[in-house]
Amino acid sequence: MQKGDSMENNELVQNKKNEIKFHFNNMRAENFKNEKYGISYKDIMKLSQKVDLAYYKVMDDENRETEAFFDLVRNPQNLSEIKEYANFVAENFENFVILGIGGSALGARALFTALTTMDYKKCDLKRNQRPNWFVRDSICPEKFACLLEAIDVKKTMFCVVTKSGGTLETLVQLNLVIEKLKEALGDEYTKNICAVTANLDGKLNKWATENNVKTFYFGNDVSGRFSVFSAVGLLPAAVVGADIDKLLEGANNMLQKCHTLKFFENPALYGATLQKIALDKGCNISYLMPYSDNLKIMAEWYCQLWAESLGKTISSFCKNKHVGQTPVKALGTVDQHSQMQLCLEGPYDKIVTFIRVNKHENDAVIPNLNNGLLDDYVCGHKLSDILNVSQQATEKALLERNRLNRTIEIDELDEYSMGELLMYFMIETAFMGALMDVNTFNQPSVELIKLNIKDILSKKARVSKIKAIVESQKEQEEQKEENAEVVEEAKPQDVIEEKNLTDELTKEPEVMTQIVSEPVEETFVSDDEIEDFDFEISKEEQEQLMMPEVEELEKVEVPEVQDEQKIDFSEDEQLEGQQQFELELEEEKSEPFNEDKKEDIE
Ligand code: PA5
Fold first, then answer.
1. Chain centre distance of CA 262
2. N or C: which end of the chain has fewer CB within 10 A?
């Protein structure tokens, strides 16, 4: 680990236009009233060897997963094809709808909300007649139905995004859309669908190829949540009119900044190290609190990135250890009036990262109407001034309470700063994963849920089939009985007819033969079971059926909880902290708020 140049004030200040700035001072022990709650130089040095290893692991050209997402910005693929197609969509369609989930939706949503105006209806005013955008990453029936009712599907381009090409929710949505489009457009329906995938053997690619659907590809080594700079994020961004060259330029610039072992000059390495030390000290919750509604979805994107990448089971000395840091999204100033109470007075288990945006569009000036509602010192300010003073006040309060926090400052939210911001969090996550010894890029338990869904649905389908067999068999039995009665009553001259009827009855019922001859049915339900089968199949009965698996479940090991998260603050220390806080509260009550104190935080 090399010290670097910016150690003196522990601040990382970038000079280029619109580069984001990092303020990590409020993490550092020397700025805390009670130093033990902060992170000291000694704490950092203790981890230096591990930090070096993490750096080389992430930046190593041989690391397929990091290389794969770095490569997206170093050597962008298909850029002109993406731009050309985006312009085609913008010229020919009124709406652009993304169907996808998780990493296949959140990056695009984050970019949309950051870079277009809040009100989607006005989006075209700012973005030069670009389509309205929608993302359906939820299969909530009402939400999905509302969208299909609200838009004219003929004037809508549906972009289906799935890396694996097999995610159930996404394909379910696609099928519903195909049905609707077929109704509206007949055989021409595929002209309103495009696709993004990485899996050439996946269901989506197979369908798209067979139906001549325009498809964009990205590398299989790129994890879903790290794919925002592939067509997954670039195509949607380009469709709504964002400058994707600028986005990639920002991302590339951040990548270069993080490509140095000069510790205090490498924001993601420094940031991840502080997060790791905080985690080791018991801060197992990480808040991200932007002071801009444009970044609300970016905070959601961050939560997925941090949780899915770092929440893992690791083996240490033959024991399973469950690690992770819970990400929480908050919004300024809204959460100053809710979650901040917990952050300021609750357990010492949180670190808060603020994002402050200096310049906002359509920034209203607060009028002085002399009506007694506002004090003079409020009037004349812009809304953004109040927003940013509120952020500084919250940051100050946290520091006063010995709570770890840091701030990322963005001068203006645009493609360049968004590129930097998203890349920063992805590299920080990769460093954090390396420091925590986890595999940052897999998600075995997310896959487990996908397999469970498949299993439950296929079992349900089997139960329905059995019900059909049982019903059909009962009908046949009843028919047999009815026919037998007819034979009984038959007159002697009907002997020939009787014989025919008897032959007919001894035949295997046709419907039954058809159903039973299907391969899956034969082995798992006996005649006796069918006899006793209750038509209303309860859960227990389904379990009792013990049907064989359609496909063997992939074995995903989810080990038992064995270790507790280590918390380094002893009870005495926490008590001391609490007492100190109570003392401070008392002092505050007796002493009026001092405006001069504001300066301390800068
Ligand atoms: O980050 C991930 O890998 C996941 O969140 C996936 O993006 C999510 O499960 C969707 O998968 P897919 O893109 O294969 O449809």
1. 32
2. C
Q: Residue 575's CB: how many other CB atoms inside 10 A?
A: 11
Q: Is 259 a catalytic residue?
A: no
Instruction: Calculate how far, in angstroms, residue 432's C-alpha sits from the geometric centre of ligand 1.
Output: 21
Q: Which of 235, 77, 76 is nearest to 158 (CA)?
A: 235
In tens, the pLDDT along 432-469 reads 999 999 999 999 888 888 888 888 998 888 888 888 88
Check residue 35 and report its DSSP letter: G
> Mean pLDDT: which of 55-69, 87-101, 473-487 is highest?
87-101
Do 232 and 108 form a contact (C-beta atoms < 8 A)? yes
Catalytic (active site) residue 337: yes
Beta carbons within 10 angstroms of residue 13's beta carbon: 11
CA dihedral of residues 588, 589, 594, 597 (deg, nearest 10): 20
| C-beta of 448 in contact with ligand 1 (< 6 A) | no
> Which CATH architecture fits 77-242?
3-Layer(aba) Sandwich (3.40)
The DSSP 8-state label assigned to residue 214 in this structure reads E
Q: Which of 346, 351, 365 lies closest to 581 in space, CA to CA?
A: 346
**Average pLDDT for 515-538:** 39
Domain 10-49+258-442 belongs to what topology? Rossmann fold (3.40.50)
Task: Evaluate: CB of 113 within 6 angstroms of ligand 1.
Answer: no
Strands (E) located in 64-213? 95-99, 132-136, 156-161, 193-197
Q: How far is Cα 190 from Cα 181, in angstroms, rounded to an integer?
A: 8
Residue to probe by mutation, ligand 1, list 69, 136, 161, 163, most atoms within 8 Å of CB: 163
Spatial CA neighbour of 394 closest among 459, 341, 432: 341
Kindly report which listed range (311-325, 368-382, 521-535) carries the lowest average pLDDT score.
521-535
